[in-house]
Write a structure and sequence with these properties.
Layout (H helix, E strand, L loop, with lengths): L2 H15 L6 H10 L7 H10 L5 H6 L14 H23 L12
Helix pairs in contact: 1-2, 1-3, 2-3
Length: about 110
């Protein structure tokens, strides 16, 4: 992560902690006040756009909880789609096993 990205991340956390709406202008103002001048405006725009309508505190509290998965609809079509997705996962696992270096008979230091 670059210094610009890190500075904008900290600015986002400061604004979220104060329950202030995260906008590119507010991020840029906070960065200038902190004396961080080497941040291009694109970074503040990207972060503000990515966090638009989201509660940053809630995101931080639910890191790793697996809350990003969508609920499956209760239709017959969705059930067959889920089975197809599981079959694809199994095929990917089999392909990964086939492409391993150990199966080729040589190692990194041979």
């Amino acid at each position: 992560m670059s210094n610009a990205e890190l500075a904008v991340s900290y600015a986002v956390l400061i604004l979220a902690d104060d329950s202030v709406e995260i906008t590119p202008d507010k991020l840029q103002t906070l960065l200038k006040t902190a004396g961080v001048d080497d941040v291009e405006p694109i970074w503040t725009s990207l972060f503000a756009k990515a966090l638009e309508g989201k509660d940053v505190k809630d995101l931080l509290l639910n890191v790793g909880s697996g809350g990003g998965a969508a609920a499956a609809p209760a239709t017959g079509v969705a059930a067959t789609g889920g089975a197809a997705a599981e079959a694809e996962k199994e095929e990917e696992k089999e392909e990964e096993k086939e492409e391993s270096d150990e199966d080729m008979g040589f190692g990194l230091f041979d």
